[in-house]
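Exam revision sheet. Question 4 asks you to relate a sequence to its structure. Input first:
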Amino acid sequence: MSHRDYCMHLSTKEGQVVVQVGVEDSGEIKLEISTAEDEDNNTVLTFKSDSDVKGLIEILRWSRVRSLEAQGFKVVV
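Answer key, structure tokens:
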């Protein structure tokens, strides 16, 4: 049985987005992304590997760093 542990509402260029993260009884992490405009068309990713989750986090972190640098900020990591 799955339960949602975290939910985040985002304002993106594409519109309102909801990101929900749950942990399965098996320990798998389920990531569900839906838009307010089309709630029936969700993207669901289920991660079995911790390294995949860590990789996703790292790519988002480094993308944010590059984005801030492109905006003229000096980023210290």
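Marking note for examiners. The beta strands are 3-12, 15-23, 29-35, 43-47.
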